Amino acid sequence: MRLLTRTFATVLVALSLAPVAQANGASGQRDHSQADQVCLTEAIYFEANPHAESQQAVGHVILNRARDSRFPSSVCGVIKQGCQFSYRCSGRSLALRDKVKRQRAEQAATAVLAGSDDPTRGALFFHSAKARPGGFFSKRPRVGEIGGNVFYR
Length: 153
What we know:
This protein is mainly α. The chain is built from 6 helices and 3 strands; from the N terminus they run αααααβαββ.
């Protein structure tokens, strides 16, 4: 039984390191791991509304940051960097309890990692349209509003 458990654990580790999207030099896309998928799903679940365009927009901001030298170079690194995303510092549970919402977030994360079009046109920042942003955002080029979030380069 112990050997079977270790073998299963080894398979799980191997799957978590397996690429989700293949490299595509033309678009700057790179391999993404299962960990990237899990982290991106979590961020989309908590940061975006349930509409596909909004979810993909949030996902693309994270990918845009991972490609920018001013941020960590991995999807999980971007998401876990300080309090860049409010849900990570709220003290709330990070459990993805709503099954339908989780499935939609997973689908959006898969599409983003596979290279879907970026509706934010390269945005690196966003905030809720309900929030009153500080001076930081006034110095950034505004891309537009998608699904209740305002996006900036």
